Amino acid sequence: MEIRKLVTVSALIMIVLMALGIVWGTVRINEIRMGGPIQTNIQSASDLIADIIPPSAYVIEPYLEAALLVQEPASLAMHEKRLKELRAEYDARHAYWKAHSFDPVLHERITHATHDTAMQFWEALDTKFLPAVRSGDREATDRAFWHLTTAFDEHRQAVINTVTLATDYQERLRENAAQRLRATMVVLGMLVVSLFVLVLAFCGIVRWRVLRPIVNLSQQMDRMATGDMRFDDISAGRRDEIGAINRALGGIVGYVRTKAETEARAAMEIQQKVVAELGAGLDRLRQGKLGYRIPDDFPHDYEALREDYHSAVESVESAISHVHVATQALNASANEIGTATHDLTQRTEMQAENLQTISATTRQLAERAQQAVISSRHVSSIVDEVQQQADTNEHVVSEAITAMGEIERSAASITRITNVIDGIAYQTNLLALNAGIEAARAGDAGKGFAVVATEVRALAQRCADAAREIKELIGESSEHIGGGVALVRQCGDAFQAIVERVGHVSGLIEGIVGAAADQESGVRHVDEAIRSIDRMTQQNASMGEECTATARALKVEADKLREMVARFEMRPVESEDAAPDHATPDCALHAA
């Protein structure tokens, strides 16, 4: 953390702590001050005790014992004992207040005026009232109690006067305590304000007299670290530690500046010498004198620059010598390229004519293959229609077989029904026979019933005959239906064989169609390839012409380059690489 922030934070912490201390002290002072919560609670407890317990310095309880004794003379011993205890407590409290020092007027009232009236009460009690009670004289007891009451009234009035004085004294004490508390709080407030002012003044002095100069020095050091050696000695006139630091830093800056200027002058002289030598070498290089070398050695720090210059010149010299050799080879290669590209152009034109003839032939083949594909597809569609019709007939035959089966099952059902009818006719005939027998037994009364029974039997016989005829017809029909079902099944098998043969033919035709389509596609691809070759051949012819023109231009540029290289003066050196063989150009290779 920065010192400036640390000082600010410390000041804020001190102010907060002082504020908390002031608040805490104010609360505590308010608690213990006169009239505060603690004193009020103590006063309340004292008042409560005074209200509950009769005070020992007030003879009200002895007067009560005397009044009880008037009412109960027989309990003299008990009340007399209690009166002795109360007298001892009174004497003890009187001795306490007599020895206690406080307000003189109040002290005189409680130790003399109140005590004198109390002693008169005790004297009347001991000399008059108790002897009268002991003697059992009621009249003497009443007179003694009257004197006792008179003494008690005087004592009570003295106590009331004393309480009034004590109340006034208490009010004066409270007022005095309040005045002192106010004076104390004023003094404490002034001290707190002074302390706050001192803390703020201390923080301001630290910030302006210590932190600000330190920040200025830090900023100047940061500038010096970046190479800016300007120094502002604002605090140099101070006679404290900040001024000493500022003056010391100024001395360091002066020393560094002087040393830097000296080293800069020496470096400048060396650089001027190096620049002059390099300038001379570059001037020789500009003139084309590649054999020049810098004779004098450079200083140690610049010797690498001299060596780099020599290496660069040697590299340029070697490169130019290689360029000279390469230009000769380039000139020869340009001549060969021109001849080869001319031959390539002629052969390419002949090849283009042959490709045009082949392209026309392949186009005719493609048209014929396309016509074959169309015909085979037409045949395939006809075969598909035949196969669909055969499938339809097969479905019809299958439905006919199903219908024949249903008819056969229906005939079987009719046969069962005729059997039932035959059984019913037989039962009816038996019933009619029994009815005739019963009618014969009945005599004349059963004649009409006998006629009915005869008719019923005849009807039953006709039903049985009809059922038998129907059964015979159903049997013949079943035989014919069975034969028809067999024939229909044979017809279905024949149609199934036809469908299989048609499917096989359809597959063969589809293969023919696929082969024709593949052949047509292949011929088309061949035609496209031939056209592409034709285009490429024409492009090759154009490129051959361009290569010829380029070779001629290359020969011209090679001649110019050879003339430019001839201007350089080089040291006589042997080339490490022999002149390259005249490589066969790519154009010549393609021409072959």
Automatic annotation (TrEMBL):
Q: Which UniProt keywords apply?
A: Chemotaxis, Membrane, Transducer, Transmembrane, Transmembrane helix
A Pfam family hit: MCPsignal
- Which SMART domains does the annotation name? HAMP, MA
Q: Which GO terms describe its cellular component?
A: membrane
Is Transmembrane among this UniProt entry's keywords? yes
Q: Name one GO biological process term.
A: signal transduction
Q: Which top-level group of life is the source organism from?
A: Bacteria
Question: Methyl-accepting transducer domain: from which residue to which, for each copy?
Answer: 326-555
Claim: Transmembrane is one of the keywords in the record: yes
Membrane spanning segments where? 6-27, 183-208
Do you know which PANTHER family this protein is assigned to? Answer: METHYL-ACCEPTING CHEMOTAXIS PROTEIN 3 (PTHR43531:SF11), PROTEIN ICFG (PTHR43531)
Give the family this protein belongs to, as stated in its UniProt record: Belongs to the methyl-accepting chemotaxis (MCP) protein family.
Q: What is this protein called?
A: Methyl-accepting chemotaxis protein
Q: Which organism is it from?
A: Sphingobium fluviale
